[in-house]
Amino acid sequence: MKYARALTIAGSDSGGGAGIQADLKTFQELGVFGMSALTAVTAQNTLGVHGVYPMSLEALENQIDAVAADLPPAAIKTGMLFNSDMIELVARKVKEYDWNQVVIDPVMVAKGGQSLLQEEAVEALIEQLLPLSYVITPNLPEAEALVGMSVQTIEDRKLAAKKLHQKGARHVVIKGGHGKEGDQVIDLLFDGENFTEFESQRIQTKHTHGTGCTYAAAITAEIAKGKSVKDAVNTAKQFIQAAIEHTLEFGEGHGPTNHWAYNEK
Ligand SMILES: Nc1ncnc2c1ncn2[C@@H]1O[C@H](COP(=O)(O)OP(=O)(O)OP(=O)(O)O)[C@@H](O)[C@H]1O
Ligand SMILES: Cc1ncc(CO)c(N)n1
């Protein structure tokens, strides 16, 4: 097959920089056929989230079933899952279809601070979805919420990664975008045995809307193509670095990243 297929289960960002839109653009740029199951529609731009409109459970289930029945994906990504009922449904579907290349981006809050996951749902995420993940990609605040400890230093991150692995995640990538390393951004991969650090120059910009979605989507695309997790994270790191560096300067607030940049550089 010339093109692998990947499915994103996530929310729509009307502003086009995060969510389903970021995922599909990233899949396309990395040569993977993208498919989607929407959990919620958000009214969103670079200034913030202006409204959240969840889909019904029936609508979410029907989208997943339609894709699974006719277009089975090589890899799955989850983003905004909104509430515990949706998490339970997605976990049930992952088991039903025996999907084992599942990348979970445990989206909790948007850059502007608005909640994209109800607080009561964090437990469901830990109990039901995390054990089904091939890769989980928390940022630092998400890692703190998932393991219940402060996650700042590299040593904290290593301990948090071990705890998430113990809870059932096959690979853990702790993203360093919110870290305080000064000039560097360090993402940490743990595969259950070894740690690998992916380091890059921190770019001084406010245009980082959707970095997490784009990064996890790039990991998913590479896994769909049959790459190892380590190679997938390496490519994703280069993809996101290019996307942040070659800024688009769109909007009055936190603008989107440049999904073309990786292929144009
Ligand atoms: N200023 C920056 N310069 C370079 N790389 C960055 C910067 N900010 C984030 N990154 C990279 O972007 C990716 C996403 O990291 P981050 O921790 O920002 O995720 P996130 O908080 O989930 O993003 P978002 O909530 O905006 O979707 C990581 O690979 C991280 O290293
Ligand atoms: C729909 C959606 N998903 C994820 C994020 C996190 O960046 C966002 N801002 N919007």
The tally of helices reads 9
Which spans have pLDDT < 50 for at least 5 consecutive residues? none
Which value, in Å, is the CA radius of gyration?
17 Å
Count of discrete domains: 1
Give the averaged pLDDT, no decimals.
Answer: 96
Query: At the first level of CATH, what is the class?
Result: Alpha Beta
Determine the CATH topology.
UDP-N-acetylmuramoyl-L-alanine:D-glutamate ligase
What kind of sheet is the major sheet?
9 strands, mixed
Structural class: alpha/beta
Per CATH, the superfamily is Ribokinase
Architecture per CATH nomenclature, i.e. the level-2 architecture: 3-Layer(aba) Sandwich
Number of strands: 9
- What is the spatial order of strands in the main beta sheet? 3-2-1-4-5-6-7-8-9
Strand content: 15-25%
The proportion of residues forming helix, as a percent range, comes to 25-40%
Global shape? globular
- The succession of helices and strands, N to C, reads EHEEHEHEHEHHEEEHHH
Cα distance, first to last residue? 28 Å
Bound molecules: adenosine-5'-triphosphate, 4-amino-5-hydroxymethyl-2-methylpyrimidine
Protein name: Hydroxymethylpyrimidine/phosphomethylpyrimidine kinase
Catalytic activity: 4-amino-5-hydroxymethyl-2-methylpyrimidine + ATP = 4-amino-2-methyl-5-(phosphooxymethyl)pyrimidine + ADP + H(+); 4-amino-2-methyl-5-(phosphooxymethyl)pyrimidine + ATP = 4-amino-2-methyl-5-(diphosphooxymethyl)pyrimidine + ADP
Domain Pyridoxamine kinase/Phosphomethylpyrimidine kinase: 13-258
Enzyme class: transferase
